[in-house]
Amino acid sequence: VQLQASGGGTVQAGGSLRLSCAGSGSTISLNAIGWYRQAPGKQREFVAVISSGGATTYADSVTGRFTISRDNAKKTVYLQMHSLKPEDTAIYYCAQRDGILVRTSAVSYPYWGQGTQVTVSS
Fold first, then answer.
1. CA–CA distance from 12 to each of 5, 18, 114, 121 (Å)?
2. Model confidence at 101, in pLDDT bands (50, 70, 90)?
3. Cα–Cα distance for residue pair 53/31, rounded to 1 Å
4. ∠ CA 83-89-93 to the nearest 5 degrees?
5. Phi, psi of 19 (to 5 degrees)
6. Mean pLDDT for the chain overall
7. How much is the pLDDT for 27?
8. 113 — phi, psi (to 5°)?
9. With 90 as the cut, is the pLDDT of residue 88 above it?
């Protein structure tokens, strides 16, 4: 399983970005996919997850601002981010479970992409 995260960049506070997580095989469509982030000096934290059936769960800090979605035909999961804040600055990682249900714990995800940097300036 290979995951490729992309779409990061530098934006001003209040701006938007859309991250993409592309899978190398068909398994991305069959399993839950999560987004995590890690800011400098902090632990990796859960952001959002989508089940194989489209059910979603979000961290409280991003609810109402971020939307996770998937396009199984393109083998891609997206994280649309609006109203970005400086505290959203982090490296964002996508991860794949071996399972269809949503989980928020990082230990539930055996496969990880390489990360994409998101920087929000004030």
1. 21, 14, 24, 5
2. confident
3. 9
4. 105
5. -90, 150
6. 95
7. 87
8. -85, 180
9. yes
